[in-house]
Model the fold of this input.
Amino acid sequence: MEIKQVFRTLSESSGVSGYEHDLASTLQENCPWADEIKTDKLGNVIMLKKGQGTGPKPKVMLAGHMDEIGLIITKIEKEGFLRFGTIGGFDQRVLLAQEVVVHGKERLTGIIGAKPPHIQAPGEQGQAVKMDDLFIDIGFDSQEQAAKYVRVGDIATMKRDVLDLQGSIMAGKSFDDRAGVAAIFECFKVLEQVSHKADVYGVATVQEEVGLRGAITSTYGIVPDIGIAIDVGFGDSPGLPESDTIKLSQGPGVAIGPHVHPKVHARMVETAKEWNISYSSDPSPSPGGTDAYAIQVARAGVATILLSIPLRYMHTPIETIDYEDVKRTGRLMAMFIAGLDNEFVEGLTCF
Done:
């Protein structure tokens, strides 16, 4: 199975925070390496790959969030235009002139518009258009006509096909964090070929963009010994200091900071070196915006680490990654898991 194609399908699908249910079937149909797959009450998709052998087994949880940022309709104007707000943190500078899909009674294609620059007030032309001045045009000319298909509270998503750039570089929407979900699949695929004692729970979490909610509930239910959150980090690009970025095409960023267990970090780095898997060190002094935080503080606490796939242009419709970094992330996790035993897990409580 070509996981890269599954990733492409996930990217082009819709799944705004709180509305991820349509993605569950795609995940369930494309993970033949899992021994069990279930969906919990919040919508998390939990895939279990059982470890070999008998007796007590370490439990490892891999978490990548499948939700995406999106739009919600807040008002239907009398002329038929749709006003909207955001679910999650869109970069509003890029919204103007985007194609969108409005998920009303039917799926409707629309565009995001605003008044043209020729009639803007003095001083407006050099500024980003404010959210309050944007609207979605779906081609209707009255509130009554639009209201037959769209209701306040309906969701809208970006309409964007994945683009293949040079080599293994790809661009598209919602790579944050469906690249992390693809990395879990890549990990499971490698684990099919190697011996591992640990039971591995791969979780496509929901509602990360609005408060890490899926990671909170799924960690509480699984009670893992070790948690690995896979998210995206700021990829290198012009205008960003090197110290704040992770270079594309050189593997994942391995986080180090207060949300990372030092023994898990040391073993992850050791594994990368042993198997010649490229990685970058990713200092993270102020954690809190990824599933790693939610996993770390669940129940009595979980030994946690964060792996970040470098991504350019975060929270835009043209997020850009090197898919080889997704594969490197999956392989690194698989080889880390293959080296785990009960002795290592028991030692996590001793610093």
Observations:
- The chain is about 25% helix and 25% strand.
- The chain has two domains: 3-68+173-349, 70-158.
- The mean pLDDT is 94.
- The longest strand covers residues 226-234.
